[in-house]
Amino acid sequence: MTESIRNADVLIIGGGLSGTMLAVQLLRLPGQRHILVIEPRAELGRGEAYSAVELGHTLNGNAARMSVDPDNADDLTQWLTGYLDAGGWPQAHQQPVPISELFPPRGIFGVYAQQRLAEAKALSASTVEHIRAEVVDLIVDETSTRLTLDNGQQLRGAYAVLATGMFPAARTPQTESSGVNAAAVDPWDVQAMTRIDPQSTVLIIGSGLTMVDAVVSLEQAGHRGPIEIFSRHGLLPHVRRQPPSWEDFLAADPSLRSPRQLLREVRRQCRIAQAQGIDWQAPLDTVRAHIGRLWSQAGEREKRQFVRHVRPWWESHHHRSPPLSAQLVARLQEEGRLRIQAASFKGLVASDDAVTINVRRRGEQVVTQVAGAALINSSGIEYDWRRVARPLPQQLLKRGLIQPGPLALGIAADVSGAVVDAEGKVSQRLFAMGPPLRGMWWESTAVTDVAIQAKALAARLTQR
Ligand SMILES: Cc1cc2nc3c(=O)[nH]c(=O)nc-3n(C[C@H](O)[C@H](O)[C@H](O)COP(=O)(O)OP(=O)(O)OC[C@H]3O[C@@H](n4cnc5c(N)ncnc54)[C@H](O)[C@@H]3O)c2cc1C
């Protein structure tokens, strides 16, 4: 019934870091707008990443790298200085480094995002309201967008923005049917870790940063038994250090394009750095600023080559581990308690008092059974919206309002984030930001990506 529809200027679907930073940027612009952020979680600004309660679940970059203000790289360091002065995060004082070099717990970063929202609200003529619900459907016409919430309520706005973040791989129909979801412990469920027998063997699928979080939680929960980790390539994230600056060699040579050329040149630069006694992370870190351009310029064949040949290497070298977590993983490896094996997961074997999984080790034909007392699924993110079993992605696909992005990573959009529909038409009303744009930019999830996109999208939405 139209009477019950609430109206707004901008409807932001998802109130994690992306949705919240978009709201902050809209509030900072002149004018008077009403913005609704629809988010089922109790608090805005957190999402999965910044809802962490474990102090050991830290950002994977130091404060100087994690500002949410694209115009002020020191924003987080400045906020953190005040937070520590006020008695927050007392454990930070045990680390003898400048505040800009601290790796803040992600839960504290959530407080920072929330405070930036509160400040922007207090200073703005515009308003932001949090509607606690899940958006289950969306329609678009020439002049507006209309959302349906899981409580039946309808909202209408001039624009809608998909800031729906990342969907865990564990929620896809494929893993549902293999039984992994039912058997596995949530890698961020700190309470569930305390219920695991401390001397038992724990199996973990996936060896990225989520696995690192899970190992931190197991240790905190008092687990002292073996940890067996299986991932396709058996690669661990490297530890993040603070390398010195290095010449931006990609800016100096724009002819470098194909994944093969790029990889060869990055390796060459790393060797030069190491020969001079400089950390290989210095040249690698210069690549980050170019990755969106390189990815969006690449053809489908090159993108596939990158995903097949470079991705595992990029993930383990670029998405690096915070130092304290990396030290823990290294210590457990040295003690022989933690083992990483290159093996693919081939299914779960039902059993009452244990978890048994089938794995095929790299280079072997046979499938081996491995048993443990608990299984943690940290195998990552599902970027293909066709496989996300949530109502909104399914409805958007069914209505033809979106189409899969390149390589089916997220959804297609133009450079401003305007969503492309099933017929290739660029929407004037529906936008996306953050992880849904993975296929457009490759890197579209980190704090800095989100912060930059939020500012640009706010300007785009208010330009008329
Ligand atoms: C565990 C973890 C740790 C991370 N650590 C770092 C880090 O250290 N450094 C870094 O740079 N990046 C990190 N990231 C990347 C991280 O994704 C981004 O920094 C940021 O959280 C992305 O924000 P987002 O709002 O786009 O997504 P999310 O945080 O996933 O938030 C999306 C929100 O949308 C909501 N939502 C989804 N669908 C609907 C719907 N239909 N209706 C209403 N609401 C909906 C969800 O409830 C969720 O709260 C981490 C990610 C994870 C998962």
UniProtKB/TrEMBL annotation:
InterPro entries: FAD/NAD-bd_sf, HpyO/CreE_NAD-binding, L-asp_N-monooxygenase_NS-form. Pfam families: NAD_binding_9. It comes from the Bacteria. Residues 12-166 form the FAD-dependent urate hydroxylase HpyO/Asp monooxygenase CreE-like FAD/NAD(P)-binding domain. Transmembrane segments: none annotated. This is Pyridine nucleotide-disulfide oxidoreductase. It comes from Pseudomonas antarctica.
